[in-house]
Amino acid sequence: MARVVVDVMLKSEILDPQGEAVLGALPRLGVGDVASVRIGKRVEIEFDEHAQNIEEQSRVIADQLLANPVIENFTVSIEQGSTETGPVGAP
Amino acid sequence: MSARIGIVTFPGSLDDRDAARAVHLAGAEPVGLWHDDTALAGVDAVFLPGGFSYGDALRCGAIARFSQVMDSIKRAAGAGMPVVGVCNGFQVLCESHLLPGALVRNAHLRYRNRPARLRVETDRTAWTRLYEPGTEVVFPAKHGEGRYVADEATLDELERTGRVVFRYLDNPNGSMRDIAGVTNEAGNVVGLMPHPEHAVEALTGPSTDGLGVVASVLTHLSEGVSR
């Protein structure tokens, strides 16, 4: 069974008000030396054991549904025969 | 016979009944369309109402794009049928790539509900042809994800080709270039965040300026343009 992780991030030129809000709260934690916080999504997908073309299908899922290419970028990482600590493929 | 305007109900739509009432008040016949209908019941135009389709899962409008009815609406829009999307309907049109750009969280992160003053920038769309360009209108706005964004090249293209349809006079959400609504190249598909269907009766709305949206499409249809 293959597990795929898709990370979706707002493009750098798109304002991330949630990240800004977190950044603004950090001094109250006593953390003062952070320059930027950006918030994205992590999506975990498990294919069944007979699945073929996992990378191709994952890219379709990420490009056409999980990310909106107008505002977001994504990376796809495939963990073959995955366990929690399995190796992470190149994005 | 009066024109038939289809109003789509997705799971989580809220404003479908108000849209139907606005269509009725403007003199057309509202026709309910269901999200997993493939047939459009012979309607002359489509209104995608506001709400929270599919609970806003993933991104607003992202799941509605894959509904059965949207396949039919995309085909009909490509053939020139007038389609308007308001609020969540605008988000669905952007996610469906029928309109450029995207709608993201308001810059101040707060849900904003109050009347919005807008300028109608163009009468060269199926849904605004009865408004004098430059007219000021007041439609209620109520959204948490209404900040219009697109890359600079797209924004320049929209400005250059007169496809910014509505512009905020007091930008409530941080939208780029104060854009409240846009249209496609053909002018038959329009999306906007504020709600013309809530501005059709003095008793419940801040104005009756919204009647002109449906009245415009009725004129458009009666002249047989792009039908």
Question: Overview of this structure, please?
Answer:
The complex is a heterodimer of chains A (91) and B (227). Chain A is of the alpha+beta class and 91 residues long. Chain A has helices at 17-29, 54-66; strands spanning 3-10, 41-46, 72-79. Chain A has a domain at 3-14 and 40-79: Phosphoribosylformylglycinamidine synthase subunit PurS (Mth169, Chain: A). Chain A has a three-stranded antiparallel sheet, with helices on one face. The two termini of chain B are 16 Å apart. In chain B, strand 1 (4-9), helix 1 and strand 2 (29-34) form a beta-alpha-beta unit. In chain B, the strands form two sheets. In chain B, strands 2-1-3-4-11-10-9-6-7 form a nine-stranded mixed sheet, with helices on both faces. In chain B, strands 5-8 form a two-stranded antiparallel sheet. Chain B has one domain: Class I glutamine amidotransferase (GATase) domain (Rossmann fold, 3-Layer(aba) Sandwich). Chain A binds chain B through residues 10, 13-15, 17-18, 21, 65-66, 68, 70-71, and chain B through 58-59, 62, 66, 94-95, 100-102, 104-109, 149-151, 174.
For the structure shown, list the relevant keywords:
heterodimer; A: 91 residues; alpha+beta; Mth169, Chain: A; disordered C terminus; B: 227 residues; alpha/beta; Rossmann fold; 5 helices; glutaminase activity (chain B); ATP binding (chain B); purine biosynthesis (chain B); ATP-binding (chain B); PRibForGlyAmidine_synth_PurQ (chain B)
Question: Could you give a short description of this structure?
Answer:
Chain A is α+β, with helices and mostly antiparallel strands and 91 residues long. Chain A has 2 helices and 3 strands, in the order βαβαβ.
